[in-house]
Amino acid sequence: MKKNILYAVLLLLVVFAVPQILSDFGTNLTTEIFIMAMFAMSLGLIMGYAGLDSLGHAAFFGIGAYSVALIGKFVTNTYLIIIIAVAIAGLIAFITGAVFIRTSKFYFLMITLAFSQLIFTLLWQMKDLTGGADGMSVSAIMNLGFGDIFDPQTMYYVMGIIFVAVFILLRLFVESPAGKITKGVMENEGRMAALGYDVRVYKLLAFTLSGALAGFAGSLYSFYNVFVSPELSAWLFSGQVMIMVIVGGVGTLLGPAIGAGVFIFLQNFISTYTERWPLILGAILIFLVLIGKGGIIQWLKLGVTMIFKSRPKNNKVSSTIQPEKEEIIS
Amino acid sequence: MDIILVQLITGIAYGMLYFMIAAGLTIILGVMNVVNLSHGALFMLGSYLAFTFINNGINFWFALLLSAISVGIFGIILEKVLIKRVYGKVLEQVLLTFGLMLVIADSVKWIWGTEMQTIPAPAMLDMSIPIGDMAFPVFRLFVVFVGCLLAVLLWYLEAKTRIGAIIRAGVDDRAMVGSLGINVGAVFTGVFIFGAALAGLSGVLGGPLLGMYTGMDSEILVTSLIVVVIGGLGSWKGSFIGALIIGVLEIFGKVWFPSLSMLIVFLIMMVILIIRPQGLFGREVA
User: What is the per-residue pLDDT for B263?
Assistant: First the structure.
C-alpha cells in the first residue's frame, strides 16, 4: 500500500513537472502519451500477467473511440458516454475472449489479429454510420463537472491524473488475490487447475478487464483527438501497441507505459524529418531483437544494479531477468 | 444459374491463391514454430518484382520463375541472418517479423510508389471462355490449376519422399528428429525458402487477379492467417479446405452482402473454433 502511495506521488510529480519543462507542443504530445500509455498498460496486463499475447488489441481501442463518437451525438454527459463506451468494449471483450482463450498461443495471436482487422473492415465499410474511410469527427466535448474542456493545458492535467489513477488501480488488481491467481495461471496452468481454480475464468477476467481498459483509453482518445478513423482498429496499430509493451518490458506495469512514451516520441520526432517512419521503425525493431536484452524496464534495472552493485554480481542480475524470457519461450 | 457458377469458380480461384500463400505460412508454422508476419510482404515483393521484370520486356513465365527464385533467395538471407535467432521465442518472432514486414512493405512503397498497379495476364491465357452467356477469364482457371498442382506436389512430397517424412516427423517431435542425426537447421532453412518462394510465386499469380496496392501485404496476411487458423496449424490439407471456404465465401459475400463479407468470414472462423479449437485438421497440441 505504501508503495502505491509512493508511486502515485512520484507519477503526479512527473505529471505536474512536464508542462514546466516542455513546450506547449511537448505537453500536448505528452497528453497523447498518457492515453497511449493506458492503452499499452491494458495490453501489458494480459501479456505480462495472463500470458495472452494479443495482436488485436486495437479492436477494443477503436470500439471505445467510435462509441464516443457515435453516442456523443445523442448524449452530452461525459461520464455517461465514457461508461457506455467502456461497457461496450468490455462486453465485446468478454464475448470474444470466451472463444479466444480456449485456443493455444499461436492461435491466440492470429485470431486476435483477425478480430482487429474485422473491426477495421466493419468501420471502413459501414459508411452510413461511421463515415467509412474518411472517419468521423467527434461532436461530444469533455465535461467532467467543471466546464467544457477545450484548452490543451486542462486536457493535459485531466489525462495525466486519469493515467496515474489507472496505473494505481491496475497495481491494486495485480496485487489482489484474483491478480495473483491470474499470474499463477500464466506461470503454471496445470498446477493452478490442480489446485482447484477454474483457469479459464481468470484468463477471461483479465481479458475482459483489459478490453474494457483499452476501450476506456480509446474513448479518451476520441475526446482528445476530436476525430476518429478506422485505422484506430487496424491490426498495424495493434502491432504497434504490442511493440510498446515489448519494448517497454513485458511483465511490468510501468514498462508498457514507458514503451508508449518512447514510441510516440520517436514517431513524432522521426516523422518530422522523413516519411520513412515505418522503415525506420522496422529497422529499430529488428535491431532490438538482435541485441535482445528484454525491454527498457529491464535495461533500467540492469543499469541500476550495475551502478549500485558493481561487483561481479552482473550474472545474477541477468539471471533474474532471464526467467521472464524463459517463460516466453515455453 | 450461370452467374452463380461464375462466382463459384471465381471463388475457387481466389481460394487457390489463398491456399498457395497459406500453405507456405502453415508449413513454416508447423515445422519451425514461427509466425511469419512478413509473409504477406514477401507476397507483395513477388508481385512487384514480376511487375518490373515484365515491364522490362521479360515474358510472364520467365518473370514468374525469376520472382519466385528472387524471393526464395531473399528468404535464405532472412532465415540465416535473422529468423534463426528467434526460434522458440514467440514474442521476439512477432517483433522481428513485424519489423521485417514494415521494412519490406515501406521499401516497396518507396521504390514502386503508392499508385495501384497490375500485372497483365500472359498472352496465352489473356482471353475468356463463355460460361452460359457470361465471359469468364481463362487466367482464373489457370490459377485453380496451379493450386491443384501444388496440392498434388505437397501430397507427393509429404507421403512419398524422405524429405516429407522428415518434415512430418519434425512437426511431431523436433528434438527426436535432431537426435536421429538429421540436420534440423538445414531442414528449417529449406522449409523457409520453400515458403518464401511460394509466397513470391503466388504474388505473381495474384498480380493479374487482385492488383497491387499499398496495404495489400497486410490484407493478404490476415486472410491467409484466417485460412491457417481454420485449417489447423501446420496442416496444408487444412489450409486447402480453409482457403476454398474463405475464397468462395468471400466472393459470394462480396456480391450478396458487400459490407458484411469480412464479418461472415470471421463468424465462420469463430464457429469452427468453438467446435474445434485446434482447427479442422489440427491436432491437439499444447
Answer: 79
Q: Of A125, A239, A242, which is closest to B259 when you measure between CB atoms?
A: A125
Using an 8 Å CB-CB cutoff, list chain A residues near B91.
53, 246, 250, 328
Find residue B212's DSSP bridge partners: B117
Helix (H) or strand (E) holding B130: strand B128-131
- Predicted confidence band of residue A327 (pLDDT cuts 50, 70, 90): very low
Q: Do A278 and B105 touch (CB under 8 A)?
A: yes
Q: DSSP characters for B218-262?
A: HHHHHHHHHHHHHH-TT-HHHHHHHHHHHHHHHHHHHHHSGGGHH
Maximum C-alpha span of chain B: 62
Report CA-CA distances (Å) from B270 to A16, A89, A100, A215, B277. 47, 18, 9, 22, 9
B216 interfaces chain A, CB cutoff of 8 Å:
no
Angle at B215 between CA B210 and CA B221, to 5 degrees: 75
- B89-103: pLDDT as tens digits: 888 888 899 999 999
> What confidence tens digit (pLDDT) does each residue in A249-288 have?
888 888 899 999 999 999 888 888 888 888 998 898 888 8
For residue B46, CA distances in Å to A109, B23, B56, B64 come to 26, 16, 15, 9
3-class secondary structure, A62: helix
d(CA B214, CA B108): 9
ipTM for the complex shown: 0.82
Partners of B33 on chain A (C-beta within 8 Å) are 106
B110 three-class SS: helix
A302 vs A260: CA distance, rounded Å: 20
| pLDDT, tens digit, 9 for 90 and up, residues A40-61 | 999 999 998 888 889 899 999 9
Q: What is the mean pLDDT of residues A202-207?
A: 91
Choose among B96, B88, B117, B81: nearest CA to B216: B117
Asked whether the beta carbons of residue A114 and residue B269 sit closer than 8 angstroms, the reply is: yes
Q: How many residues does chain A have?
A: 330
User: Residue A80: CB partners within 8 Å, gap ≥ 6?
Assistant: none
Backbone angles phi, psi at B229, to 5 degrees: -65, -45
* Number of residues written out for chain B: 286
Mean pLDDT of chain A: 85
Those residues of chain B that have pLDDT short of 50 are: 285-286
**Which of B77, B93, B94, B224 is best to mutate for the A interface (most A CBs within 10 A)?**
B94
CA proximity to A197, closest of A179, A172, A174, A213:
A179
Judged on CB neighbours under 10 Å (0-12, 13-18, 19+), A79 is exposed
